[in-house]
Amino acid sequence: MGLSVSGSKPGRRRGRGRNAAISDINVTPMVDVMLVLLIVFMVAAPLMTMGVKVDLPQTQAQTMPLERKPITVTVTPDGAISIDSEPVTLETLVPAVAALAVDGTDERLYVRGDATAAYGSIMEVMGALSAAGYGQIGLITERKPAE
């Protein structure tokens, strides 16, 4: 008949028992989740950096208290640009704003665009200011009359 050399009972395997904990980690689901997150962040990251940041006013907002006169850039219906009623061109806009800005690029700027002005001309002004490093650009609007 047969002899068992290991000294254990015949029919029983060495190593893990039937109720022993499994110490292997299945990494396939974790890799799948990480790849999905990587793709999501790769798609979302360019969308977060595109565009010009603006502070749009709320309809019920109160007037903001101001310590000094703000720098206001106006775009007329024909696309003419002016800073505090002084006409400028798109090329001289950034140097003119830099000369008026006390806080440098941390200065809050306000853009007044006529409702009939071309959207592109207002975006050119905001894009030039944003490219120069000004991050606090607000749009000035009028409050709608109560109906």
**Largest sheet entry:** 6 strands, mixed
Global morphology: elongated
- The secondary-structure element order is HEEEEHEHE
What value does the average pLDDT take?
Answer: 76
Structural class by SSE content: alpha/beta
- Count of helical stretches: 3
DSSP, total strands:
6
> In angstroms, what is the radius of gyration?
33 Å
The parts where pLDDT drops under 50 for at least 5 residues are: 50-58
Percentage of residues in DSSP E strands: 15-25%
Distance between the termini: 104 Å
Largest sheet strand order: 1-6-5-2-3-4
Helicity range of the residues?
25-40%
Textual characterization of the structure:
The radius of gyration is 33 Å and the shape is elongated. The chain starts with 27 loop residues before the first helix and ends in an 8-residue tail after the last strand. A 6-stranded mixed sheet has the order 1-6-5-2-3-4, with helices on one face. With 147 residues, the protein is of the alpha/beta class. Strand 3 (81-83) and strand 4 (86-88) form a beta hairpin. It has 3 helices and 6 strands.
